[in-house]
Design a protein that fits this description.
mainly alpha, single chain, globular, 259 residues, 80% helix
Protein backbone atom coordinates (compact mmCIF):
# COMPACT_ATOMS: atom_id res chain seq x y z
CA UNK A 1 0.00 0.00 0.00
CA UNK A 2 1.41 3.35 -1.04
CA UNK A 3 1.31 6.48 1.16
CA UNK A 4 0.19 9.71 -0.46
CA UNK A 5 2.05 12.99 0.11
CA UNK A 6 -0.97 14.36 1.98
CA UNK A 7 -1.07 11.35 4.30
CA UNK A 8 2.66 11.68 4.93
CA UNK A 9 2.13 15.29 5.99
CA UNK A 10 -0.63 14.13 8.33
CA UNK A 11 1.71 11.48 9.74
CA UNK A 12 4.49 13.99 10.29
CA UNK A 13 2.11 16.05 12.44
CA UNK A 14 2.75 13.47 15.17
CA UNK A 15 6.23 14.95 15.61
CA UNK A 16 4.57 18.05 17.04
CA UNK A 17 4.17 16.16 20.33
CA UNK A 18 7.89 15.73 21.14
CA UNK A 19 8.63 19.16 19.68
CA UNK A 20 6.07 20.74 22.01
CA UNK A 21 7.60 18.97 25.02
CA UNK A 22 11.05 20.28 24.03
CA UNK A 23 9.55 23.75 23.71
CA UNK A 24 7.86 23.64 27.11
CA UNK A 25 11.06 22.43 28.79
CA UNK A 26 13.07 25.09 26.93
CA UNK A 27 15.73 22.63 25.87
CA UNK A 28 18.10 23.18 22.92
CA UNK A 29 16.75 19.91 21.52
CA UNK A 30 13.84 21.81 19.97
CA UNK A 31 15.91 23.49 17.26
CA UNK A 32 18.10 20.42 16.82
CA UNK A 33 15.09 18.13 16.37
CA UNK A 34 13.36 20.54 13.98
CA UNK A 35 16.47 20.86 11.82
CA UNK A 36 17.02 17.09 11.95
CA UNK A 37 13.44 16.43 10.82
CA UNK A 38 13.75 18.82 7.90
CA UNK A 39 17.13 17.42 6.89
CA UNK A 40 15.88 13.85 7.17
CA UNK A 41 12.84 14.58 5.00
CA UNK A 42 14.83 16.39 2.31
CA UNK A 43 17.66 13.85 2.30
CA UNK A 44 15.29 10.88 2.12
CA UNK A 45 13.35 12.53 -0.70
CA UNK A 46 16.56 13.06 -2.68
CA UNK A 47 17.70 9.51 -1.97
CA UNK A 48 14.31 8.26 -3.13
CA UNK A 49 14.76 10.04 -6.46
CA UNK A 50 18.34 8.83 -6.80
CA UNK A 51 17.42 5.23 -5.96
CA UNK A 52 14.65 5.37 -8.55
CA UNK A 53 17.27 6.06 -11.22
CA UNK A 54 19.69 3.52 -9.74
CA UNK A 55 17.03 0.84 -9.95
CA UNK A 56 16.11 1.93 -13.47
CA UNK A 57 19.69 1.88 -14.75
CA UNK A 58 20.61 -1.24 -12.74
CA UNK A 59 24.26 -0.90 -13.73
CA UNK A 60 26.87 -2.74 -11.66
CA UNK A 61 29.54 -0.02 -12.01
CA UNK A 62 27.14 2.74 -11.02
CA UNK A 63 26.03 0.68 -8.01
CA UNK A 64 29.63 0.14 -6.92
CA UNK A 65 30.31 3.86 -7.33
CA UNK A 66 27.33 4.60 -5.07
CA UNK A 67 28.76 2.22 -2.45
CA UNK A 68 32.09 4.06 -2.66
CA UNK A 69 30.25 7.33 -2.00
CA UNK A 70 28.51 5.77 1.02
CA UNK A 71 31.85 4.47 2.32
CA UNK A 72 33.43 7.93 2.03
CA UNK A 73 30.53 9.56 3.87
CA UNK A 74 30.57 6.87 6.56
CA UNK A 75 34.35 7.22 7.00
CA UNK A 76 34.22 10.99 7.48
CA UNK A 77 31.24 10.62 9.83
CA UNK A 78 33.13 8.10 11.97
CA UNK A 79 36.23 10.31 11.88
CA UNK A 80 34.25 13.29 13.15
CA UNK A 81 32.54 11.36 15.93
CA UNK A 82 35.69 9.62 17.17
CA UNK A 83 37.71 12.87 17.00
CA UNK A 84 40.68 11.06 15.44
CA UNK A 85 43.20 12.62 13.07
CA UNK A 86 42.36 11.86 9.45
CA UNK A 87 45.98 10.81 8.91
CA UNK A 88 45.47 8.11 11.53
CA UNK A 89 42.06 6.69 10.73
CA UNK A 90 40.57 7.87 7.42
CA UNK A 91 42.09 5.28 5.10
CA UNK A 92 41.80 2.43 7.64
CA UNK A 93 38.13 3.26 8.15
CA UNK A 94 37.41 3.45 4.43
CA UNK A 95 39.26 0.20 3.75
CA UNK A 96 37.54 -1.55 6.65
CA UNK A 97 34.09 -0.39 5.59
CA UNK A 98 34.50 -1.09 1.88
CA UNK A 99 36.23 -4.48 2.11
CA UNK A 100 33.88 -5.82 4.79
CA UNK A 101 30.73 -4.58 3.04
CA UNK A 102 31.74 -5.98 -0.34
CA UNK A 103 33.01 -9.35 0.95
CA UNK A 104 30.15 -10.06 3.34
CA UNK A 105 27.54 -8.49 1.07
CA UNK A 106 28.55 -10.51 -1.99
CA UNK A 107 28.78 -13.67 0.14
CA UNK A 108 25.16 -13.14 1.17
CA UNK A 109 23.89 -12.18 -2.27
CA UNK A 110 25.87 -14.68 -4.33
CA UNK A 111 26.17 -17.70 -2.04
CA UNK A 112 23.19 -17.45 0.35
CA UNK A 113 20.58 -15.94 -1.98
CA UNK A 114 22.23 -17.50 -5.07
CA UNK A 115 21.50 -14.51 -7.26
CA UNK A 116 22.72 -14.76 -10.82
CA UNK A 117 23.51 -11.03 -10.66
CA UNK A 118 24.56 -10.03 -7.11
CA UNK A 119 24.96 -6.42 -8.29
CA UNK A 120 21.24 -6.12 -9.02
CA UNK A 121 20.24 -2.73 -7.60
CA UNK A 122 17.19 -4.14 -5.86
CA UNK A 123 19.39 -6.28 -3.63
CA UNK A 124 22.90 -4.83 -3.79
CA UNK A 125 22.12 -1.24 -2.72
CA UNK A 126 19.89 -2.07 0.29
CA UNK A 127 22.26 -4.74 1.62
CA UNK A 128 25.28 -2.43 1.32
CA UNK A 129 23.35 0.32 3.10
CA UNK A 130 22.34 -1.97 5.97
CA UNK A 131 25.90 -3.25 6.38
CA UNK A 132 27.50 0.20 6.32
CA UNK A 133 24.97 1.65 8.74
CA UNK A 134 25.63 -1.06 11.32
CA UNK A 135 29.40 -0.98 10.81
CA UNK A 136 29.41 2.78 11.34
CA UNK A 137 27.62 2.52 14.70
CA UNK A 138 29.96 -0.17 15.99
CA UNK A 139 33.07 1.59 14.66
CA UNK A 140 32.28 4.88 16.41
CA UNK A 141 31.75 3.26 19.82
CA UNK A 142 34.65 0.81 19.55
CA UNK A 143 37.26 3.23 18.20
CA UNK A 144 36.26 5.97 20.66
CA UNK A 145 36.56 3.57 23.60
CA UNK A 146 39.84 2.11 22.34
CA UNK A 147 41.66 5.39 21.78
CA UNK A 148 40.15 7.07 24.86
CA UNK A 149 41.38 4.30 27.14
CA UNK A 150 44.73 4.08 25.34
CA UNK A 151 45.37 7.83 25.75
CA UNK A 152 44.03 7.89 29.30
CA UNK A 153 45.98 4.84 30.48
CA UNK A 154 49.16 5.30 28.50
CA UNK A 155 51.36 4.45 31.54
CA UNK A 156 49.73 1.00 31.68
CA UNK A 157 50.55 0.40 28.02
CA UNK A 158 54.20 1.37 28.58
CA UNK A 159 54.31 -0.65 31.79
CA UNK A 160 53.24 -3.78 29.89
CA UNK A 161 55.82 -3.12 27.20
CA UNK A 162 58.51 -2.56 29.80
CA UNK A 163 57.72 -5.90 31.40
CA UNK A 164 58.32 -7.85 28.23
CA UNK A 165 54.91 -7.79 26.58
CA UNK A 166 54.73 -7.66 22.83
CA UNK A 167 52.92 -4.76 21.18
CA UNK A 168 49.84 -6.95 20.63
CA UNK A 169 49.87 -8.13 24.23
CA UNK A 170 50.18 -4.56 25.48
CA UNK A 171 47.19 -3.26 23.51
CA UNK A 172 45.00 -6.32 24.15
CA UNK A 173 43.48 -4.96 27.43
CA UNK A 174 42.41 -1.80 25.62
CA UNK A 175 41.08 -3.75 22.63
CA UNK A 176 39.13 -6.06 24.91
CA UNK A 177 37.34 -3.17 26.65
CA UNK A 178 36.64 -1.43 23.35
CA UNK A 179 35.22 -4.52 21.66
CA UNK A 180 33.07 -5.31 24.69
CA UNK A 181 31.68 -1.78 24.71
CA UNK A 182 31.13 -1.66 20.96
CA UNK A 183 29.44 -5.03 20.59
CA UNK A 184 27.52 -5.27 23.88
CA UNK A 185 24.51 -3.31 22.48
CA UNK A 186 24.56 -5.45 19.31
CA UNK A 187 24.50 -8.68 21.30
CA UNK A 188 21.85 -7.39 23.70
CA UNK A 189 19.64 -6.36 20.78
CA UNK A 190 20.20 -9.73 19.12
CA UNK A 191 19.21 -11.60 22.28
CA UNK A 192 15.78 -9.96 22.61
CA UNK A 193 14.97 -9.54 18.92
CA UNK A 194 11.43 -10.61 18.19
CA UNK A 195 10.45 -10.63 21.87
CA UNK A 196 10.72 -6.97 22.86
CA UNK A 197 10.14 -5.45 19.43
CA UNK A 198 9.48 -6.58 15.88
CA UNK A 199 12.59 -5.78 13.80
CA UNK A 200 12.31 -3.10 11.12
CA UNK A 201 13.24 -5.47 8.30
CA UNK A 202 10.45 -7.87 9.27
CA UNK A 203 7.95 -5.02 9.64
CA UNK A 204 8.93 -3.48 6.31
CA UNK A 205 8.70 -6.74 4.40
CA UNK A 206 5.35 -7.69 5.93
CA UNK A 207 3.94 -4.24 5.13
CA UNK A 208 5.34 -4.68 1.63
CA UNK A 209 3.39 -7.91 1.18
CA UNK A 210 5.95 -10.62 2.05
CA UNK A 211 4.91 -13.69 4.02
CA UNK A 212 5.95 -13.56 7.73
CA UNK A 213 8.10 -16.68 7.34
CA UNK A 214 10.12 -15.16 4.51
CA UNK A 215 10.48 -11.86 6.40
CA UNK A 216 11.82 -13.72 9.46
CA UNK A 217 14.38 -15.61 7.38
CA UNK A 218 15.66 -12.37 5.88
CA UNK A 219 15.89 -10.75 9.32
CA UNK A 220 17.95 -13.62 10.71
CA UNK A 221 20.32 -13.36 7.76
CA UNK A 222 20.55 -9.57 8.09
CA UNK A 223 21.55 -9.90 11.74
CA UNK A 224 24.15 -12.54 10.87
CA UNK A 225 25.79 -10.52 8.10
CA UNK A 226 25.76 -7.18 9.97
CA UNK A 227 27.24 -8.83 13.06
CA UNK A 228 30.00 -10.48 11.02
CA UNK A 229 30.72 -7.46 8.84
CA UNK A 230 30.99 -5.17 11.87
CA UNK A 231 33.62 -7.42 13.45
CA UNK A 232 35.59 -7.85 10.22
CA UNK A 233 35.48 -4.11 9.58
CA UNK A 234 36.57 -3.27 13.11
CA UNK A 235 39.45 -5.76 13.06
CA UNK A 236 40.70 -4.50 9.69
CA UNK A 237 40.35 -0.83 10.67
CA UNK A 238 42.28 -1.22 13.94
CA UNK A 239 44.93 -3.35 12.23
CA UNK A 240 45.53 -0.69 9.56
CA UNK A 241 45.26 2.25 11.98
CA UNK A 242 47.75 0.59 14.33
CA UNK A 243 50.59 1.45 11.95
CA UNK A 244 49.68 5.14 12.20
CA UNK A 245 48.97 5.09 15.95
CA UNK A 246 52.42 3.95 17.09
CA UNK A 247 55.94 4.72 15.91
CA UNK A 248 58.64 2.16 15.17
CA UNK A 249 59.57 2.04 18.86
CA UNK A 250 56.00 1.28 19.93
CA UNK A 251 55.33 4.77 21.32
CA UNK A 252 51.84 6.22 20.92
CA UNK A 253 51.71 8.98 18.32
CA UNK A 254 49.37 11.96 18.20
CA UNK A 255 46.13 10.18 17.31
CA UNK A 256 43.94 13.23 17.90
CA UNK A 257 44.35 16.78 16.54
CA UNK A 258 44.69 18.30 20.02
CA UNK A 259 46.88 15.50 21.37
Amino acid sequence: MDISILNMVVGLLLTAVPLYVFYRLKTPLLSQAAIALVRMTVQMALIGVYLHYLFTWNNAWINILWVVVMVIVASFTALKRTRLRWQTALLPLAAGFFCSAVVVGLYFLFIVLRLSNPFDSRYFIPIMGILLGNMLSVAVVTLTSYYDSLCRETPLYYYLLGNGATHMEAITPFLKKAVEKGFAPVIANMAVMGLVALPSTVTGQILGGSAPGIAIKYQIMIIAITFSASMISMALTIYLADRKSFDECGRITHVRPNA
